[in-house]
């Protein structure tokens, strides 16, 4: 591998080639924000505000309460919460004790929660009240002995809390959506904090090399695994993200947390990076266009991380309503390809930049991003972050780089790369290579000037008759048909060719496309072996919590139906 980094020429002025290796734990970022900007609004939850001084005190009390329950260095603590102030407090309180946060999606089924809770062995679970009974129901299959229920309505502004007490149908409906009964023996988060004194200063905190987070992968290629991320990993990625955005002002930004904090993407940009610069974090319990636009009137966003469908829907709503999002200087898109037309619409309504980036849970997660400048490149994921290296390797010999412009597996190394999977040494050895490189599982190409573009997933590659078929290429062709709203392409076993290409299509509203006509359309635009042998119609496709189509699940459903 050459020592040259051709992508450095694309860095905007002021973005360094490398960052200093973090020498303090992630909790130091919160301590610094509290010290420098105590009166700055740290959290805005539907209008209720928390300053950095208040956040620091709440974290101290929460850490004290957890310490009294026996939580100590290295213990895992499960968080099963939507975006809310209690989530932020719990996250930093666990870290303050040198314990390990384990994030979970509160919409998981009982079986999904049971598997993960049993895997990491947490004895304490801090969860939304509506999830508490589910956790209690599976506790016997896990190590969980203490369940702490969080009342979301306690974080609402006083007026909204009072409105929920009214004996009116809308109030009853909202209460039912936000609250749930606590099972016998469960503790109240609000009462624990009210009764706790600040944590004693002599309680040991974490070291920069300690494990901070177990983040379970989305499971798009098999059983979810717990990625082990240290304070150094997370602090490095927060610093890389900070320096990547020219003009970010300490104590002067407003980040919108519409991405879930329990997902690596939302956690890094909307929580750790935001706290690193003492930004105001506008927390929304879910993505809702009306909720975003309402919040923007009250507290205009300056930095907006999201996924392409969010930008599409917000742009359409602004064009229709005349709402104002012109305060957004920078928007970051990830998790799926960003269509150029989405960029045009968003930048037309905001006047700011919308750029695409790339990452994976195992890398904290961000590794590559488009320059936040005129040098950004549509259709590309961009160039490696500071202190990050990337190369395109021959899939048959990972020690060999592919010739310029040819596809291979994308390999990454940098301070944000994880140390392995929890209790899975074989799986760890399969992705971590000598020299600090991690296999991404993505097929990519690199341009001469160091811009990377994703071709497809290695594990989702279809091999039919000895030929490689990249699902995204077939999907792009089918998606261009006017009767196709969305599509997923997968490979199914075939006695003749090894695998056959199958497309599952969501029709455009009001249409019922003819599968044979769609196949003919594809054959006109693709080599014969790439065209789908079979097309199925469906009302919707399975997606992850941030909107990515789950091809593996599509494939499993087709296999089960055959």
TrEMBL record:
Q: Does the keyword Ligase apply?
A: yes
Q: Which Pfam families match?
A: AMP-binding, AMP-binding_C
GO molecular-function annotation terms? ligase activity, forming carbon-sulfur bonds
The residues covered by the AMP-binding enzyme C-terminal domain are 473-548
Q: What Gene3D superfamilies does the annotation carry?
A: 3.30.300.30, N-terminal domain of ligase-like
UniProt domain AMP-dependent synthetase/ligase: residue ranges: 33-422
Q: Which UniProt keywords apply?
A: Ligase
PANTHER family assigned to the protein according to its UniProt record, in alphabetical order: AMP-DEPENDENT SYNTHETASE AND LIGASE (PTHR43767:SF12), LONG-CHAIN-FATTY-ACID--COA LIGASE (PTHR43767)
Protein name per Swiss-Prot or TrEMBL? Long-chain-fatty-acid--CoA ligase
Organism of this sequence:
Winogradskya consettensis
């Amino acid at each position: 591998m050459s020592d040259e980094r051709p992508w450095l020429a694309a860095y905007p002025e002021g973005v360094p080639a490398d960052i200093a290796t973090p020498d303090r734990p992630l909790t130091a970022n919160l301590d610094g924000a509290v010290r420098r900007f105590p009166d700055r609004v740290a959290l805005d939850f539907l209008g209720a505000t928390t300053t950095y001084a208040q956040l620091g005190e709440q974290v101290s009390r929460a850490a004290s309460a957890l310490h009294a329950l026996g939580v100590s260095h290295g213990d895992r603590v499960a968080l099963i919460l939507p975006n809310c102030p209690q989530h932020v407090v719990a996250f930093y309180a666990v870290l303050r004790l040198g314990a390990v946060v384990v994030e979970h999606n509160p919409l998981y089924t009982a079986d999904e929660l049971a598997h993960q809770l049993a895997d990491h062995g947490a004895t304490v679970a801090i969860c939304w009240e509506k999830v508490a009974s589910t956790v209690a129901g599976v506790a016997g299959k896990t190590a969980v002995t203490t369940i702490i229920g969080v009342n979301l309505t306690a974080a609402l502004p006083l007026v909204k809390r009072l409105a929920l007490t009214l004996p009116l149908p809308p109030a009853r409906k909202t209460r039912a959506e936000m609250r749930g009964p606590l099972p016998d023996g469960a503790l109240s988060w609000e009462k624990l904090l009210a009764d706790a004194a600040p944590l004693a200063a002599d309680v040991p905190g974490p070291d920069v090399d300690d494990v901070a987070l177990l983040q379970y992968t989305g499971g798009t290629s098999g059983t979810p695994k717990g990625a082990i991320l240290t304070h150094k990993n997370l602090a490095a990625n927060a610093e890389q993200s900070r320096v990547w955005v020219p003009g970010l002002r300490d104590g002067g930004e407003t980040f919108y947390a519409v991405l879930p904090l329990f997902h690596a993407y939302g956690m890094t940009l909307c929580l750790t990076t935001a706290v690193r610069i003492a930004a105001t974090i506008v927390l929304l319990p879910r993505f809702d266009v009306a909720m975003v636009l309402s919040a923007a009137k009250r507290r205009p966003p300056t930095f907006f991380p999201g996924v392409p469908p969010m930008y599409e829907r917000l742009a359409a709503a602004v064009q229709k309503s005349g709402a104002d999002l012109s305060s957004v200087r920078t928007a970051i898109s990830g998790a799926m390809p960003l269509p150029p037309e989405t960029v045009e619409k968003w930048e037309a309504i905001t006047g700011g930049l919308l750029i695409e980036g790339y990452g994976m849970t195992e890398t904290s997660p961000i590794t590559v991003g488009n320059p936040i400048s005129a040098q950004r490149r549509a259709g590309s994921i961009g160039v490696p972050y500071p202190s990050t290296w990337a190369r395109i390797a021959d899939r048959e010999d990972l020690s060999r780089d592919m010739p310029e412009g040819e596809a291979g597996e994308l390999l990454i190394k940098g301070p944000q790369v994880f140390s392995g999977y929890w209790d899975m040494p074989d799986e760890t050895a399969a992705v971590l290579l000598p020299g600090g490189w991690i296999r991404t599982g993505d097929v990519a190409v690199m341009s001469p000037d160091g811009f990377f573009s994703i071709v497809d997933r290695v594990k989702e590659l279809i091999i039919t008759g000895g030929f490689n078929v990249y699902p995204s290429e077939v999907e792009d062709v089918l998606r261009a048909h006017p009767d196709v709203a969305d599509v997923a392409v997968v490979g199914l076993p075939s006695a003749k060719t090894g695998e056959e290409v199958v497309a599952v299509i969501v029709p455009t509203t009001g249409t019922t496309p003819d599968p044979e006509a769609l196949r003919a359309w594809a054959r006109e635009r693709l080599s014969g072996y790439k065209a789908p042998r079979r097309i199925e119609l469906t009302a919707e496709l399975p997606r992850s919590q941030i909107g990515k189509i789950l091809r593996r699940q599509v494939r499993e459903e087709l296999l089960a139906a055959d």
